[in-house]
Amino acid sequence: MSITLWGRTTSANVQKVLWALGELGLSYEHIPLGGRFGGNREPAYLAMNPHGLVPTLKDGDLVLWESHAIVRYLAAQYGAGSLWPESPVARAESDRWTDWTATTFQAAWLGVFWKYYRTAPESRDPAAISAGIAAAEACFEILDARLAAVPWLGGDTLTYADICAGVGMHRWRTMGIAYRRHANVERWAAALHERAAYRDSVETDYAELAGRASA
Prior knowledge:
Blueprint: E1 3-6, H1 12-24, E2 29-31, H2 43-48, E3 56-59, E4 62-65, H3 67-78, H4 88-117, H5 126-149, H6 160-166, H7 169-174, H8 183-193, H9 196-201
Parallel strand pairs: 1-2
Antiparallel strand pairs: 1-3, 3-4
C-alpha cells in the first residue's frame, strides 16, 4: 500500500510518526502542512482530519489522525515482533506508558515548551514556567524508576511506547531550561540517540518555533 503523511516536521506529534516510519524502514510520501506551510484549514484536509491538526496518515484506504493511534497502527501493521510486541502482556506494558504519555507526560513537558520556548521572553510567566517544570520533573522521576528496572518502557526492546514518550527528550534537553538529570532517563536518552531514525526525525532544528505562539 502507498503511505502518505501530512504535517510539518517541527511538530513533535509528526516526529513520532516519522520516527516510527524510519524504524520500520517504510517508504512514504511526506506533505508539509500546518504552521508556516498552512493548509490545515483547507476543506480537503478537514475532510480527512476534522480537527485540522497534524499529523494525518493515509495508508491505502485507511486515513488516521492522532499521533499515538498512527504509531500504534504502523507498529501493529508493519512491526510485529519489534515495535509491536507479540505478547499481550508486553503490549499492555507498552500501552500503559503510551497512554500515560498522552494524558500526563506530554502535557507536562510540552506545556513548558509552550510557556518558555514558544513565548517571547518579555511575555513569559516565570511562575507558570516553574510550576510546569515541577510537573514535568515529577514525570521524569516516574520514568526514571521504570527505566531502572527495564532498558525500554515496554520491557527489553524498543516499542511504540518509547517513540511516543521519547520524542520529547530532544526538546527538553535543548530548549534552554535548567533541568535535573536522572541517571536512568539519561541512559535511555543516550540509547534513543543511537538510533538513526530518532536522529533523523527528532533531533532536528526547531528554531522557527521560538517565540511563535501560534500552532
